[in-house]
Each structure stands twice: as C-alpha cells, then as structure tokens.
Amino acid sequence: MRYQAVIFDLDGVLCTTDRFHFEAWKQTAKEVQAPFDETINQRLRGVSRMESLEIILEGSPLSLSPDEKRRLAEEKNDRYRALLSQLTPADMEDGVRETLRSLRIAGLKLAVGSSSKNAGFILHQLQAEGLFDAVCDGNQITRSKPDPEVFLRAAELLGIPAGLCLVVEDAPAGLEAAKAGGMDCAVIGDAALPFAPDYHLGKLEELPSLIL
Hints:
Layout: E1 5-8, H1 18-31, H2 38-43, H3 49-57, H4 66-84, H5 94-105, E2 109-113, H6 119-126, E3 134-136, H7 149-158, E4 165-169, H8 172-180, E5 184-188, E6 199-201, H9 207-211
Parallel strand pairs: 1-2, 1-4, 2-3, 4-5, 5-6
Helix pairs in contact: 1-4
C-alpha cells in the first residue's frame, strides 16, 4: 500500500460549515463598510481568521488599528461558534463515516489537519472525535496554509513520515501546503487550483478505491 496515513482537512471535506462562516463574516463586512459575497467568501477557504479579515478589509474604506482588527476577528469567531452549535452528527454524511471506517480497517492511520481553531468543537458536535488517531488544528500551529506546518504536525502526531501521508483537501491553499510538506494530495470539488493534485475526487467516497 502506497500510504500509511491519511490527513483530512475538516471544512469542505468531512463536513461543511461554509454557511456559518458566510453569515459570520457578512456581519463583519457590514461593520467595516466592505462588500461581501460568495466570491469573496471563496477566497477565505483554508486561510486563517486574521488573514480572512485582511481580505475583507481590502474592500473597506476604514483604517483599523491592530487592536480593532483583533476585536473584529474575535467577534466574528463568537458569532461563528454560536452558529456551530447548530451542527449535529447528521452534518457528517454517512458516506464520509463509512469511508473513514474503510480506511481504518485497511490499516491506515487517520488525522485531521485544519487551520481552524474550532476543529475540536466541530468534531464534538459531529460526534466524530473517535474516528481519528490525531487532530492538529489552529491552536497547535503558528503558520496557516499554504504553509505545510499543520500537515507536518499531524504526521508527527501520527508518527508517520510525511512522504507516506496522503492529504485530502478542497482548497488551493491546502493543496499547496500538502505539496510544500512533501505529501501527495487528493482534492475534492471544483475549486480553481494552482496545479493538478495527485487525485481529483467528486466525493470523498471515491478515495478508498483509488488508494487501497
């Protein structure tokens, strides 16, 4: 078998919380008098909270201090976490859970590698903590994707060399991070990518037949 472990991005791969991010950032954009739509929201995928705020501020006429930016980011996160409380186990599809079980039965180690500082809370809401051998999120790293730190740290937690790990992503920044870390990458969905991934999936359920 080519891989010993699979590292999954969380949002957009294992579940979808885009609607919650959109609503929370929409309020922030309104406060700073910046436009906000789905095109801008797509640019925020896979990057950190503060980097996302800077993207939104590109359209704002305001000049904000570092303290004001931190306040806006914290208020956005408070709104987002309140919305996340609506998540239930049904927000992780049965096909996703079955895919994870298939990979584990085959002997692969599984991890989550997410820039989100809310990954643990999301997994709790999904009742999915027990499906993974390790979780590395935004609380354990200092550099967000496309820096490979989150994936390298996840591999370290698993005790598996980076070159034997496959990353599953849905965002360009995640693909770049995987490659920068020396890992193969499977990408789900139709996001515009800077280069071709090793595997392109229509849905996660296709993964076992490709790599086992």
